Amino acid sequence: MLIGLLIPGSVAAERIKDLASIQGVRNNQLIGYGLVVGLDGTGDMTQQTPFTVQSILSMLGQLGLNLPPGINMQLRNVAAVMVTATLPAFAKPGQQIDVTVSSMGNAKSLRGGTLLMTPLKGIDNQVYAIAQGSLVIGGAGAGAAGSSIQINHLGAGRISAGAIVERAVPTTLGQGEYIHLELRDADFTTARRIVETINYRFSVGTAQAIDGRLVQIRAPLDNDQRVAFLSQIESLDITPSQGAAKVIINARTGSVVMNQAVTLETSAVAHGNLSVIITTQPIISQPGPFAERGETVVAAQSQVEIRSDEGNLMLLPGSAKLADVVNALNSIGATPQDLLAILQALKAAGSLRAELEII
Fold first, then answer.
1. Local mean pLDDT, 10-residue blocks, the chain (359 residues)
2. Which of 74, 101, 129, 235 gives the lowest tally of CB atoms within 10 Å of its CB?
3. What pLDDT is attached to residue 256?
4. Could you give all domains of the chain from N- to C-terminal order, each with its CATH number?
5. What is the C-alpha separation between 108 and 69, in angstroms, rounded?
6. How far from the centroid of its chain's Cα atoms is residue 242's Cα?
């Protein structure tokens, strides 16, 4: 079992462009339906995919070729596909973007195929790009003669620069007196620090926080000046606040990732042949008998004990960190299911003071 722990240290300064995006500057999803031809007998079985036959007849009709009704088409070199793409912000007509082509029928493979001209539409049902080109199937390889080797999934492929933008999506960047920054992760402290940094760099009142995610900024009205102004803002360094404690566990592999040193409160959990006992005891520190001054200090010290049928494992006294508990469970052979059950029990008991996400 592989258990990986990722615990970053102190939070470093980051650029505003890494923490927030400008409202209105965003990507847009495109989708289209098309046909891939030129397959080596690995296309759709047309008798089981009637939409492929219908698409072929419609395409041939647009090209001036009308087939007699009732014809039984047995085409194995054609596959019906869905084509998807992401239209970046400020994309202009004539630019090229990548597309992903995915089989929607029962084609065995799209390797070696060519996508025919396919219109790509947005949510408003308007055509924003046209896709066409030869597919590239990632990870496909050939084995030795006579051997059977599993090849990566062949039902999807990509066409680099396979679509030409035909229509630009209007943005609101150059409209109005204000622009808005949207934090990728809502946080009131980070929003306040962004406002303070911008106001210190320019002038008081330039920026103000609307809430924990949105920051309103007064920007120049001239487009050229506004672009230069946004360039300066994006380059400002901010020290974001430390995020809420979060633990992510992969239930299949047992991998554990936490975003900071998560500690555990007093609790006891029993799971099968494993038990985890977390105790806290006071440590009293008094000044020496001849000390002129000083005071008695009472501090809490945690201790974690993990027991199993194969033996006991006692951790050194100190703060009860989840990283230590996970490593100890791993060293005595706990399975991913054991680890998941114990972490869920600690969370339910209130000992694990962090958000637990299972993927």
1. 48 85 91 93 80 84 79 81 94 95 90 94 95 83 53 84 93 79 92 94 92 93 90 92 81 75 72 70 55 52 65 55 73 76 80 81
2. 74
3. 79
4. 14-24+172-238 (3.30.1360), 28-165 (no CATH), 246-358 (no CATH)
5. 28
6. 20
| Type of residue numbered 229 | F
pLDDT at residue 299, rounded to an integer: 45
Region class of 86: left (phi > 0), else alpha (psi between -120 and 50), else beta: beta
Q: Which residues contact 209 (CB under 8 A, 6 or more apart)?
A: 188, 191, 192, 194, 195, 215, 216
Residue 49 is encoded by which pair of tokens? 């995919």
Note whether 49 and 128 are within 8 A (CB).
Answer: no
Burial of residue 194 (CB within 10 Å: 0-12, 13-18, 19+) is: buried
Task: Name the pTM for this structure.
Answer: 0.69
Who contacts 87 (Cβ-Cβ below 8 Å, separation ≥6)?
27, 28, 29, 30, 97, 122, 128, 129, 165, 169
Structural tokens at position 228: 């230069």
The burial of 325, by beta-carbon neighbours within 10 Å (0-12 exposed, 13-18 middle, 19 or more buried), is given as buried
Residue positions counted in the chain: 359
Q: Are strands 355-358 and 246-249 parallel, antiparallel or unpaired?
A: parallel
Residue 87 pLDDT: 95
Specify whether the CB–CB gap between 163 and 173 falls below 8 A.
Answer: no
Q: How many CB atoms lie within 10 A of CB 120?
A: 25
Q: Please count the other Cβ atoms lying within 10 Å of the Cβ belonging to residue 306.
A: 23
Taking a C-beta distance cutoff of 8 angstroms, is the pair 359, 250 a contact? yes
Q: Who contacts 94 (Cβ-Cβ below 8 Å, separation ≥6)?
A: 164, 165
Tokens of 30: 């495109």
